[in-house]
Model the fold of this input.
Amino acid sequence: MKRFILLALAFSLNALLACSSLQNPTAVETDEALEHFEAPEPLSKEEAARLNALLEDLRRRAAERRIKLAKRTPAQMALHGSKITVPDDYPTIQEAVDAAAPGTKIKIKTGTYAGDVIVVADDIELTCEGEVTVDGTIYYQGVSDGSINKLTLETGLGIWLDEAEDVEVEDNIFGATEYGVHLINSANCQIKGNLIENAEFGVYADEGDGGHRIEENTMISARFGVYLSAAGEDNEISGNSIAYTGSARGLGITLDETDHSLVKDNVILDQTNTWAVFLTSAANNKVGSDNQLNNNLVGVIIQNSFDNLIKKNEITGNGNCDIVQASGSNTFKKNEADCTLGL
Done:
């Protein structure tokens, strides 16, 4: 996990009063209006070390399971065909996963199922019939294809996709998991229509080749809504609603060392301690059109980033300023904003 210190901005009282009192966009470019402070840090040293230990444990368990499953005979793999039902065929989700051949659909009937679920076979679909609660972490490791649909996760780490490609996570509910969806060195995954509540991170993508679609999710009380860190190119973050009301500084959507990606049609409103969109060491991204980034602490803040396009967004009423360019060279067009700084 990466640990970094980000450059951000504080504003003098005079500059703030000037910005908030103007009806038309104004640019504030005085050196006095820019001061440096430490931005919110997603992972402390202790938390990064803890997550690394958890990840290593999950990878160890996945490797053990992969060795075990490699010993299955063709007859064993073909026993249930392409469909397995829990608990009719197997009492636990993990047992069903262990019995599944690539391409199997696992249907889970109403109930609460305890324990982590580790998937190492390609194209495994987890879906539910009725209301299904999983008390544990769902972990897909080294797989291609597959999906996780309509489950409720109440405990555990959330859903982790590690070195995965083309996996879909759709229409799930995250109640009190530590994380929502964590993408680790993965590519081309779709995270859509999920309700993520009370997780520190809504969707966190750490490294990988990009191509993720993070669409139409609702994140409530997620301090870091969507956070892409060295997450490749061609990602799309669209149609998400992000809300955070905690006392610690929050980040709505962050692109950190992530390039050639699109942020559009997202709603981040009335988060008085949140930077709605934050670009750092990012290039050739497009923010717009039609993001609603109103009444937060800052609407859009950009640091050490170049050749990004910020276009046709509604960015008004933010407490410090609407659009802030701390460093870098970017293009701003047709945004509705009352205050700009460093443009």
Notes: The first strand starts at residue 26 and ends at 28. The radius of gyration is 22 Å. The CA atoms of residues 13 and 131 lie 52 Å apart.
